[in-house]
Amino acid sequence: MCATIPETEVHGxxxxxxxxxxxxxxxxxxxxxxxxxxxxxxxxxxxASTGLSAQAVTNICRRLIAAGLVREAGTExxxxxxxxxMLRLEPGARLAVGVHLDPAVVTVALLDLEGTVxxxxxxxxxxxxxxxxxxATITSAVDAVIASAGADRERILGVxxxxxGPVDLRRGVVDNPPNLPGWHQVPLREELAxxxxxxxxxxKDVTAAAVAETxxxxxxxxxxxxxxxxxxxxxxxxxVDGEVVRGTSGNAGEVGHVVVDPDGPPCACGQRGCVAxxxxxxxxxxxxxxxxxxxxxxxxxxxxxxxxxxxALGELFDRADAGEPAARDVVAYAVxxxxxxxxxxxxxxxxxxxxxxxxxxARIAPYYLDxxxxxxxxxxxxxxxHGVEVVGTSIGEHFGAVGAASLVLDHAFSVHPGSLVEHxxxxxxxxxxxxx
Length: 436
Ligand SMILES: [Zn+2]
Description:
Layout: E1 8-10, E2 13-15, H1 26-36, E3 41-42, H2 43-50, H3 54-66, E4 70-76, E5 84-89, E6 95-101, E7 105-111, E8 117-124, H4 131-148, E9 156-163, E10 167-168, E11 173-174, H5 188-196, E12 200-204, H6 205-217, E13 224-230, E14 234-240, E15 243-245, H7 275-278, H8 281-290, H9 307-321, H10 325-349, E16 353-357, H11 361-377, E17 389-392, H12 399-413, E18 422-423, H13 429-435
Parallel strand pairs: 6-9, 9-12, 13-16, 16-17
Antiparallel strand pairs: 1-2, 3-5, 4-5, 6-7, 7-8, 10-11, 12-18, 13-14, 14-15
Helix pairs in contact: 1-3, 2-3, 4-5, 6-12, 8-9, 9-10, 10-11
């Protein structure tokens, strides 16, 4: 189940990599998912909750225990019958690395099967004008995170990369995202797989965030959910009936040209007040300076995507929190814009749940949760039929990197086989099987 490949030499370093095949059969995945989402289940409960026969559950549990994914954890008395042996997930049995490529910061995290971040590291985003250097920098961070957790490389299923869109999923290429200057056609999936010796998956950041919600956030995997990601860019990840929606090329959820302020700044697309030019951090900072909410010239015009922008936004929220009227007006403008966007998405998909997250969410959350749902509700087409739950993500500050690692877990364990194309390093059993 977790075959070991021969040692290979990559960039002068001897690497061993585990084989991250999709773990077991569909039924096995269903059972593992049920155990993972519980605090312990007996075989009887598993049969009842999955609809599988008692014999099938027994056989599958034997295989899961043999693979080290599940362990027997004591017994529980249920009624008068024989005490039932409880089965629990073995969280450290497999691990996944997540790499979140943000315009300012790359965050690398190592995740176990319970979603615990075992180790993480952040570094300034390397320039992709020198792709080998960028790949080497990210690889060093991946190695450092694995080493700092003392993790056994054999248990690592792979590396997930979450990048700003657009991405070319078929080729695993970061395709010139507007928020990632210099990253022209970078074949990151293949290059990173070669450098790390680990299988690599690449997806759009908002899609990774949606996958993370299906794994760690949502109480159930059914329903229609949108994840509104508020970062340097604003995007939407979609989950319909438990399935993450990627679209034809993996670029679903681009909402940058939804108009949220018809009198707002002009956009390159010909409209005014698009999300991209009204609500982006650089746009909010510009508005704040124009309206005296922040001192003029407090930000280098070219540094919109940098840590300077993060610091300046922090100052804007500090001033709003302190009750400064001009700062509060800018924050209220952002809340109204996000609510307008949320309404468009809610009506388009007939959502039952909207989850908000991303690097800037924590600061805007108190303002948004106070006013946003109310502003949204008035225009919700289905408001008389059902409500829409509006919540902040329960996934902490490393939302992007956790999402990226979740791509790997989802690929290996999901009951809903994804359409992600994965790059497997050459000269592995899987690569040989695929070419045979
Ligand atoms: Zn536009």
